[in-house]
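User: Please predict the structure of the protein below. I'd like the answer in structure-token form so I can feed it into my own downstream comparison script.

Assistant: Understood. Taking the following sequence of 424 residues as input:
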Amino acid sequence: MNSKSLKILTAVLAVVAIISGVVFFVTSGEKAPEIIEKEPVAYSYEQSEYTMSTNLSVKGANGEIYLPTDFDNIYYTADLKGSVKFFEYSGGQMIASTLAVKQVKANLAATYEKIPVTVNYIEKDGKACGYGVFTSDMSADVDVYSYAFVKLTAKPSGYGEGYLLLADFDKDNFYKADKIYSEIYNLDLASGKTSTYVSNNTRLIDKNGSFRQDWTMLTDDFIRNLGGAKYFISSRYYNESEKGKRADIMELSNAYRPKIIVEDILGLWFVNDANGMHFLRKTENGFANICNDRVLTEFEGDYFTDYMQSGKYLINKKSLEIIDLLTGEIKTLKDINIASADVFSVSPDGTKAVFASYGKTNENGAPIQTVIYCTTDNSTEPVIFSEPMLFDESAGFVWVNGGVMSVRALDGTGAKVGSVVYAF
């Protein structure tokens, strides 16, 4: 792994004073306050509470960063040289996948350029899934794009038979499991031939000289929840700064102006099931959970500051109520404070959650992060860690059987990072 591309906080070295050396106690009467001096507590990565936790295991001891594939318990690693490998999670360990790795070479048409990419893929249960990386070091013939990440995935049923090749051109997203893909290609797996679905006739150019990256968008969660529809996400009618905040759901076609199915949703969450189309929309005092044209629940406050969302689960950061947006079921967490949390992730079965805060730098210059692991039914006490170097902010949290995986520095210098699993 190229750990330089990660934003691990390497300013924290082996010794960091966390607790202030002076504590004031105020006594009653006319006596002056007594000043008690305390020795600073030295932070040691090797002896920290999180490092020493028996629930924590290192899965990427050699610097591997594992990300999920379309297949259960199968993960991949990738680097900026184009290498892609596949692993299986078994018995609490990552082992090399026994599935044969195949390759297909393709060219992506983007902003009137051809981007060559080699996709490494595996096949299981009659479907293929794979990944590829392009950087400017691989070809001098591509001027506009210095980086591209592609995913090969089976088409959702509404798209027909065959495969899609999805592309993301934001290098900062390299280690994120939940990417926003900004180009959609039809892929012939046998020949590697690609073709685009959507017309670019009126597509604007962004500040980097490439096509706007909010014209056609897909996410893995969106694809999984499309049902039999042939939709995609677009923010073309909004400001570029609103990508991921406001969008329309459109029908996939090569029409000059694709048909808008749902206008101005909040965020990117969208589910199309037997009950209808589920999405969020801003209201005068907050926002609403909507199915088709029917309001299921209304929420007060700002979606982006007062709430956090993980798939179909929405949590109020003050009341600690988690609502299942599809069923309406509400659970209330206890004994935690998530007012400053930046990350929220729920296990696929909805029974566990993790919260993470990027934190602030303390008076000694140490950035203190916080991670909270809890069960959503309060059946166990939450486990809370507040230390430097708990997780990498440029990667996310990935659920595995029995726990959750994140990216962390593997020693006190922060020079080496890899995936770790916390089991709970």
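That's the full token string. The helical segments are 49-52, 220-224, 303-306.
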